[in-house]
Amino acid sequence: MPAHPQPARVAIVVHPTRPVTSALETLERWAREHGLDIVQLQVAGGPVRQVSPRGELEPGDLLVALGGDGTVLSALRASAPANAPVLGVACGSLGALTAVSADGLAHALDRVHVGDWTARRLPALAIQPADAPDEWAINDFVVARRGAGQVLADVYVDDELYARLAGDGLVVATALGSSAYSMAAGGPVLVSGTPAVVCTPLAMHGGHAPPIVVPTSSTVRVDVHPSHAGFEIQTDGHANPLIAGSYRLSLHDQKVTLVSFGKLKLGIAGLRERRLITDSARVLARDERAERRLR
After folding, report:
1. Please, which residues bridge with residue 87 across strands?
2. CB-based contact 221:248 (threshold 8 Å)
3. Terminal CA-CA length for the chain
4. Most-buried pick from 169, 239, 254, 275 (CB within 10 A)?
5. For residues 251 and 46, what is the distance between their CA atoms, to the nearest angstrom?
6. Which residues pair with 89 in a beta bridge?
7. How many C-beta atoms lie closer than 10 Å to residue 228's C-beta?
8. CA geometry: angle at 123 spanning 117 and 126, to 5°?
């Protein structure tokens, strides 16, 4: 009995500009051999490159993301309502979320078909705007100023006021997203699997409100008071039309599934490999001196 059911159909999300022809040909050939249809999902954020018939996600689908980490994030957001597994295919450099390069796609699909893969369960951030449709984020939710003015935001945790911020905005990030925009703004890195979100102010003008880590059991509320220039909302790096005066944010554990092969890791090694985390210059200089002595 396989660990995972065989896919009933293949749904794809495609990067708008990366070279995906080789991976797409491999996928189409594999799908024909296994009698599976392919449909392309329409996702928000950026231009669309149509390569397959359009369709909606259905139960039993395998969702394949052709591109890079950004494409995988879009696919994961799309997968949330149906909890379809997402196979990330790197059409370029191998990222943190892609499981396989385009050259290894055929073998990876064979493994998925027989259930020989590991489910990497990730949380998702539920975004509930006032008087607007709900949305999901895998990395982060950002309130950002527009133009030269500042954006003002009141941040609550379980309806308890944390801070009233004025500045460039606020990032609310999952553990996965804590090493992206939030870290660049000075927020802490949450190890993969940490049941929490981190709220990181962006260029706060005066006052004192360091990044705060909020457990899964709590809800973050952000009430926005924009300047005359207004503000914008970003989810996972994409502009989002979810403009509202108030947002409730909660973390849903194990909401989406990423296809992986091999043992799951904490993600720390990947941060070092991509040089998002680097050692102290003094330590590196010491290593260089030691290497010179050995020559």
Report:
1. 64
2. yes
3. 56
4. 169
5. 26
6. 66, 100
7. 8
8. 140
Alpha helix segments (H runs only) across the chain: 21-33, 69-79, 105-113, 181-184, 268-273, 281-294
CB burial readout 21-60, b (16+ within 10 A) else e: eebbebbeebbeeeebebbbbebebeeeeeebeebebeee
Looking at residue 171, its amino acid is V
Amino acid of residue 191: V
Tens digit of pLDDT for each residue in 141-172?
999 998 888 999 999 999 899 999 999 999 99
Predicted structure pTM score: 0.87
Q: Which residue in the list 69, 140, 168, 236 is annotated as catalytic?
A: 69
Query: Which residue in 205, 196, 198 sits closest to 184, CA to CA?
Result: 198
Active site residue 131: no
pLDDT in tens, 56-68: 999 999 999 999 9
DSSP 179: G
Grouping H, G, I as helix, E, B as strand and the rest as coil, residue 87 is: strand
Condensed to tens digits (0 to 9), the pLDDT of residues 249-260 reads 999 999 999 999
Q: Which token pair is 207?
A: 């006052």
* CA distance to 39, 62, 69, 171, 233, per residue, from 237 (Å): 25, 24, 11, 11, 9
β-strands 246-260, 118-129 pairing: antiparallel
Output the furthest CA–CA distance in the chain (Å, rounded).
68
Token look-up 């309502």 returns 81
Order across the sheet with 169-173: list the strands. 212-215, 196-202, 169-173, 140-145, 231-235, 238-240
Q: Residue 55 and residue 39: Cα distance in Å, rounded?
A: 5
Tell me what percent of the chain is helix, strand and coil, each rounded to the nearest 5.
Answer: 20, 35, 40
